[in-house]
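Appendix B. Raw example, untouched.
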Amino acid sequence: MTKFLTAPHPIRSVLIANRGEIACRIIATCRRLGMRSVAVYSEADAGARHVRLADVAHGIGPAPASQSYLNIEVIIAAARATGADAIHPGYGFLSENPDFVTAVEEADLIFVGPSSEAVERMGSKITARRIAEDAGVPVVPGFDEPGASDADFAAAAKRIGYPVLVKASAGGGGRGMRRAARPDDLVAALDGARAEAATAFGDATVFIEKLIEDSRHIEVQVFGDGKGGALHFHDRDCSIQRNHQKVIEEAPAPNLPDAVRKALLAHATGLAAAIRYAGAGTVEFVMGAQEAAPYFLEMNTRLQVEHPVTEMICGVDLVEWQLRQAAGLPLSLAQEQIVPRGHAIEVRLNAERPEAGFMPDLGRVTGLQTPDTLRFDSGIDAGDTVGSHYDSMLAKLISFGADRDAARQRLIAGIDATAITGIGTNLGFLRDCLIAPAFAEGRATTGFLGETFPDGWCPDPDTLLRLRGHAALAAIAGSDDPQTRTDGFRVGGRTAPGRAPLHVADDYGSADLCLRLGPEPSVAADGRVVPLTTSPTYVVRDGAQVRAAGHGLALTLTARALAGARMDARKDIAAQGAIPAPLTGLVTDVRVAVGDRVARGDTLIIMEAMKLIHTLAAPFDGTVGKLTATVGDTVAARTVLIEIEEQS
């Protein structure tokens, strides 16, 4: 801590202008360095993990980010009120907002990051392209003339060659991007990208680039001293993406020719030096999977979500490096001292249901168990509630190994040993990505998910059946005397094992199954028999429910005697007409009224939550019998919004 107190710009206390796992990550480094950490929180985050971890916590307003985490004035006021010396923006929110950097500087506070000029220049993708070209860095063929008309774009697209990608000049995160495969698609792509960019970033400026299909996304972690010097911490591969959002990241990039790697590192440091960049940044490149010509894509003027994989192979703490640079201390290593060792892989753990089109999920985390073999950067603890106001990423799991396959196998084993119950997550989907041949062989591209899961992802049937079997076994084991209960279970001897025909319902739907008990217990369903010799990671009985997790899957199960379930089949069908809100959110459109006749699949209600649109559709042909939702309502998850009566 002494070096920070005697630095040109002393830092004793750091306010983290963020939330979730990145706020917790920054707090950990502050604590190790002996710095006082200050958390800020919205009303929705009053009990959040980053608030509990920080030395000081300060409320900054209502749940909507525009009134709290994106409110520059209240962030600056919080820093003054808590006596912070510096503000670390994390990533997302205000981290790449030049007005925020300027406000911090004008308040005589230290911004932990680059200058407002660098943030502004590189925040415009059009300006960044031109800076890269001037620095001798190859850019994707494109067209970015200011004030261009649709006709100008059409002529440029014809010259570049379809398909093209329309991109917003401002912002990021995959927003304001549209694909145009042929000339007839271009006008709609331009209009859609402009509209989304204007809403998301307040800037409707767009440009076009040649769409390099079946591509790899490679990026370089750079660190500038602000005086024209720049280091790199080697490269990462972030090719596996969904809707332009990264899913898996690793370092170093696999199967990359030495000449290409050398060129990438030189281009990235050359660009950072050209703009006299200060602090941590990432220069992103795209290249065809079968090519050896990388093109500059963009520069992110902040810490990246995937920075842990770089830390693991380079043996550094990039947050500490950021704090050192902000305090005016010199870079502590020379380039030749930054030698990568081993391999690291990171997966992003989200509260979502991949089997349901990656719909975000909400609720209380009832159980959380992670292995010591992985680095777990988390924004949640058991007992925390995942709400609808912010994005769905909860945590990151990071593995390290002597080589790539060792890191991959360790991550798979770590996912198998991880249990999160109470909310849906993408753990099972991530596990299946890691075992897919294209990933195992290091040849994944941006087309990986479509090629690996052409019909969408669903859990492995045997893995799901096994987990259901263990949960069902726990359910009936906790019941009353087996001789008197009605769930179909009967005690048998060695020659007559017990059998329990059951109907189960859980997060993945419902199923009829039969537990076969005895020396070699198993569970049967749909003509398949799966042994119950492999134990799940987590099984907890809670009243009539059982929560279980294993091999990336998690569920909350209830079990009923099969005979009774069949007798209630008509009741179940009626219950299917009661349509609940899938998550807490805002009702934005109601398209039916009581008495309307609807057909199966018709859109009934549209909701917005976690930055996404959710459509509630009719489960069968019928009539609207009851409607409780109106436009503008904020409704809680599982609230029944509409009831459909089946046609007789």
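End of appendix B.
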